[in-house]
Structure formats: C-alpha cells, structure tokens
Amino acid sequence: MADSFSINEKMSDRRKFLIAATSVAGGVAGAAIATPFLLSMMPSERAKAAGAPVEVDISKLEPGMLLMVEWRGRVVWVLNRTPEMLETLEKVEDELADPNSEKNQQPEYAKNRTRSIKPEILVTEGVCTHLGCSPVFRKDIAPADLGPDWLGGFFCPCHGSKFDLAGRVYKHVPAPTNMVVPPHVYLSDSRLLIGSESEGSA
C-alpha cells in the first residue's frame, strides 16, 4: 500500500514537472514567435528617418536650377527662380484654377503669389495632385507641344496637367489642386530644412 502511494506520488510529481516544463517551453516558443511580430509593428530607424526633416544645402543652387530632394519617400523640388521666372507668375493668373492658393495645399506663410518664404526659392512636392505622377520641369518658353502661351512651369505627361512656376494648377486639366508646399524653414541663407517649421528640429 505504501509502495503504491509512493509510486502514485512520484507519478504525480513527474506529471507536475512535465506540465511545468511544457508550459515553460510553450511560453518561450510563444515569445519567440511573438517578438518578431511585435517588432515588425514598431517603426524601424529607417522608417523613423523617412519622416524626419531633411536639411538641404542650397548654396550652389544657381538661378533657374532645380534641385531634387527626398523627404518622406517623396520627391521635393527646390527651384531657384530667376527674376524673369517670377515675372511670369502674375501674367498667367487668369489661366489658373486657384491663383490665390485658397485651397489648403501650403503652410500659411506660403499662401502668396510665389508660394514661398523667399520669393526666388520655391519648395514644393514634385507630385501631380491628380494621380500622384511625377511632372516634368519645363522652363522653355512657348514650346511646340505646350503652345505659344506657355511661360514655363511643370507639365505632367501622364494626363496633361499643367502647373506654373509656383506650382499652381491651370484650369481645365485633370489635377484638381495646386502642388503641395511642405513645411520648411531657412536655417541660414544657404541651409534649408524641409519637413519642419522650427529650427530646433534639425
């Protein structure tokens, strides 16, 4: 009887041990499976960096030159407009759908004719507001394919949308709004920060 009780006690102890061991192993396996899944839900350093402000050196940006920068996975254009380019902005306003930038496509400080902080420097996302295509910078005057009234700007060859040299959309084209002006600030005469309106974010 004592032997039978002893055997049962040993079997019970072994059962408890096996249950405990299995639980621990299951917990470890579960954690091993869950960890990569949970980590995948956390943004990587690269993903964090993709949304971070981008500092741009514009010291070598000559008049008439367009610089392309990547921010948040999108192309941002920085255009140094010549005095002649700036003169065209008023001339084309009757042909534009939103010449006064009434729709909220820019920060308040860029809600002006030049859509910029500094009149000569345009900062805009290089993305057509129709279907997200990439327009082409066409600074040539009156080219055969764009007509005699073309004074320079951005043309989307995919569906024919046109924007002036301030990224303002023309009437009667597929694009419904002006190009987006991202938040930006000048850190100095030669340094531009895209993606922030505060110098402390650099």
Could you outline the blueprint of secondary structure elements for this entry?
Blueprint: H1 2-41, H2 45-50, E1 54-57, E2 66-71, E3 74-80, H3 83-91, E4 121-125, E5 136-138, E6 153-155, E7 162-163, E8 184-186, E9 191-194
Order of helical and strand elements: HHEEEHEEEEEE
Q: What class, by secondary structure content? A: alpha+beta
Assembly of the depicted chains: single chain
Q: Which regions contain 5 or more consecutive residues with pLDDT less than 50? A: 28-44
Question: How would you portray this structure in words?
Answer:
A hairpin with a 2-residue loop joins strand 2 (66-71) and strand 3 (74-80). This protein has helices spanning 2-41, 45-50, 83-91; strands at residues 54-57, 66-71, 74-80, 121-125, 136-138, 153-155, 162-163, 184-186, 191-194. The chain is elongated. Helix content is 27%, strand content 18%. The protein has 3 helices and 9 strands. With 202 residues, it is an alpha+beta fold. The longest helix is centred in the N-terminal third of the chain and has 40 residues, at 2-41. The strands form 3 sheets. A 3-stranded antiparallel β-sheet has the order 1-9-8, with no helix packed on it. Strands 2-3-4 form a 3-stranded antiparallel β-sheet, with no helix packed on it. It has a 3-stranded antiparallel β-sheet with strand order 5-6-7, with no helix packed on it.
